[in-house]
Structure formats: C-alpha cells, structure tokens
Amino acid sequence: MLKVSSLSRKSEIFSELTQVWSIAWPLVLSNILNVTVGLIDFKMVGALGVVSIAAVGMAKQVNMLIMVIMIAVSGGASVLIAHAHGAADPLKVREISARSVTIMLITALLLVTPVGLLFSRKILFFLGAETSVIESGASYLMILFAGSIFTMFNFAVSGILLGVGRTKISLNLLIFINFLNIFFNWIFINGIGPIKPYGVAGAAIGTILARALGSVAGFRILSSHKYNIGIKLRDYFAWDTSLLLKIFQLGGPRSLQGVVRNFSNLILMKIISLLPMATVSISAYSVSTQVRMTSSFVGLAFMSAAMARVGYNMGRKNPRTAEMSGWLSAFTASAIMTLTAICFLIFPEQIMSFFTDDAEVIRMGRTFFMTVAIAEPVMAFAFALGGALRGGGEALHPFIYSSISDIVIVISAGYFFAIYLKLGFSGIAYAIALSAFTRAIPTAVDFALGKWKKKRLI
C-alpha cells in the first residue's frame, strides 16, 4: 500500500512538473525573441546615424509606460482565467477574456493614443532630448501610439493564452509577428520599389503593421474553441465594473512593481555616479545588468508558469496540488539559474569581453558577476514563488517584498557598501546579491504559511 502511494505521489509530482515546464519554456523563448528583435531594430536604425539610435532608444523608454497598463490588465486577467479554467467553467473563461480585451481597447482608444499624439514631443523634451532627437523620436512615438490598439490587443491575447496554459500558441503568434516586424521595418526604413524610405518613422510603421496582422491572427485564436476560449463578437460589448476592479486589484501591484524596479535602477545609477571612476563603473554596470536581464528571463517565465498552474489548481479546488505547483516552479527555476550562475563564475571575463575591450570595465564586471552569481538561483526562486502567490490571489504581498528589496535594500545597502564603506563598485554587487535573499525569504515564508489558499476569486 505504501509503495502504491509513493508511486502515485511521484507520478503526481512528475505530471505537475511537466505541466509547469510546458508553460515556462515557450515564455523563456518569447522573452529572448523580443530582446533579439529589439536589437535587430537598433541595428537597422543604427545605419541611419547616432541621432536615429538616440531617438529610437528614448522613444522605446517612453513607450514602456504603456507596459504598466498592459501588465495590470493582462496580469490580473491571467490569474482569473486560470482559476476559471481550473474550475472547468468555459463561460467564465470567455467572459473574463472578452472583458480584458475590451478594457485594453478602450484604454488604447481613449487614453494611450490621444495622450501619445498630443504629448510625444513634450515628453521627449522633458527627458532632455536634443531638437534633432525630438523630431525623429516624436515621429516614431506618434506612430506607435496611433497603433497602440494593436499593441494592447496582442498583449491581451498573450495574457489570455497564459491563463489557459497555451503559451506555445502565444510563442507561435509572437514568432509570426516578430518575423513580419523585421521584414516590414527593413522595407519602410530603407525603402524598396515604390515605397520611399521613411527612416526612423519607418521602424514604427513596420512595427504597427506587423502587430495589426498579428491582431487578425489573435482574433481568430480568441474566437476558436480549440484553445479553450471561444469568445463571441457580442461578448466584447458587455461591461462588468466589479470584474474590472478585480482585474486591476490582481494585476495592478505587478505593474507597479515594474515602476518601482525602474525607479530603483535610476537611484542606483545615481549612487554609481558618485564613485571615483564613475564613467567606467556605469559602463560595467550597464553591461552587467544587460546580461543579467537576459538571465532573468528564466525567473520571469517560471513566475508566469507558477501563476498559471497555481491558479488552475485553485480553480479545481485542489490547494495541495496548487502548493506543489508553486514549489516545483521555484525549485526548477532555481536549478536552471544555478547553471547560469556557474557560467557567471567560470566565464566572467569572456562575458564582459564580448561587449567591451576596456580592461577596467572587464575587471569590474568580473567582480560583479562573481558576486551576484551566488544570488541568481535565489532571485529566480523568489520570482517563481511571487508568481505562485499571485496565482493564489495574493497580489499585494509579492509587491511589498519586491519593493522593500528593490528600494530599501538595494539603495540603502548600495550606498552603505559602495560609498560609506568605500568598497566602490563591488559594494553595488554586494547590495544586489543581498536583495535577492531579503526578497526570497519573506516570499517563501508567506507561501509556506498558506493563507493564500483561503482566497476565492471566482
């Protein structure tokens, strides 16, 4: 009897691990794909000169503001959809999916597009862009804002597919959109045949055209019962204020988390600028964080996978399996990031040398990677468990833990180590490593206590 029970338990763990992995790996590839396409965009625009690179770079930073709204809506909707999907309630899945799309489209038409068209130049001026950069950047931004309805629709589709655990479909859609993006950008930036070259504006035109065609494919996906969604056209015209509030209640803290993280990075950059070798330190930090951002894709992917699986199992009224989903996601993410950490420890100079040949920048980067390598598996663990808490309906606590980690620990410890103790750039690395532990410990304790199991979302 004990052997049968043990085998059954192992089978259950393996089955759940397989489900977590099937959701996570397409998300890792999606994140890598998005960064790759962004780099290709910069490469094509780079041929137009430094002003064009600066214009697109600043415009992309401004465009990130839209992400706050998109994450708030799609993140909250994904959790609710996962619960409804787990409860085997297709009508509720359809209802939540349709409402999230409607909210996105209304926000795009009534807020994002008008504000973008009216204030693009003013925003770039406020950020300190030169006149030539403002002109190019504004043309790029205004086109992106004009087509924000397609951007937000595609983001809503990705959130819905995550909720029903169909991230492979989301990845296929993203490949389709990004292939078109590169193709159209090349045409409209450089011109071909009767199409004249539009330069920087051409990059925006190509992006919006690709997202528009992607929206057509996304609409077909949402309308199909094949993917457990099956939205009918009339569903988009219904309104539910209570559902809207619940979506923002669940997704809002996650979007604010991104705002806090960016604010923390700006303050940390200011602290680095106070160091004796400020320019070299900022260069080392910029390269190092870019590489870390790539490695963080694993933690972010398993955060979403944990959110989807915990939500699904809670919808099935199976909190024990939901808890298993969270721990499996966290330990798997941590295990994969351990491999990345080993690469950071063994090849720090080679990693830095790929981006620069400055000996001092490479030396600083080596110290940075060898320090934060210890914390990478811990941070991935914290990311995944934060997603698990959100999947269980506890959205506020992960925001609090991450905010304390990013603001209080990183900034105060960074200043203390780097400036007060005069440890220089190494002190920044120590602070970042410390913040991983101060985020992971309370998140793990909160998840283990299990109060989130008592929440009912649908």
Work out the helix count. Answer: 17
SSE order: HHHHHHHHHHHHHHHHH
**Structural class, please?**
mainly alpha
Give the overall average pLDDT.
87
Strand percent estimate: under 5%
Principal-axes shape call: globular
First and last CA, distance? 37 Å
Specify the helix fraction band. Answer: over 70%
SSE inventory with pairings:
Blueprint: H1 2-46, H2 50-63, H3 65-86, H4 90-126, H5 131-146, H6 148-163, H7 167-190, H8 200-223, H9 241-272, H10 278-295, H11 297-315, H12 319-346, H13 348-355, H14 359-372, H15 376-391, H16 396-420, H17 425-449
What does it look like?
α3 runs antiparallel to α4. It contains 17 helices and no strands. It is globular, with a radius of gyration of 23 Å. The protein is an all-alpha fold. It has two domains: 33-239, no CATH class; 252-454, no CATH class. It has helices at residues 2-46, 50-63, 65-86, 90-126, 131-146, 148-163, 167-190, 200-223, 241-272, 278-295, 297-315, 319-346, 348-355, 359-372, 376-391, 396-420, 425-449. The model has no long low-confidence stretch (mean pLDDT 87).
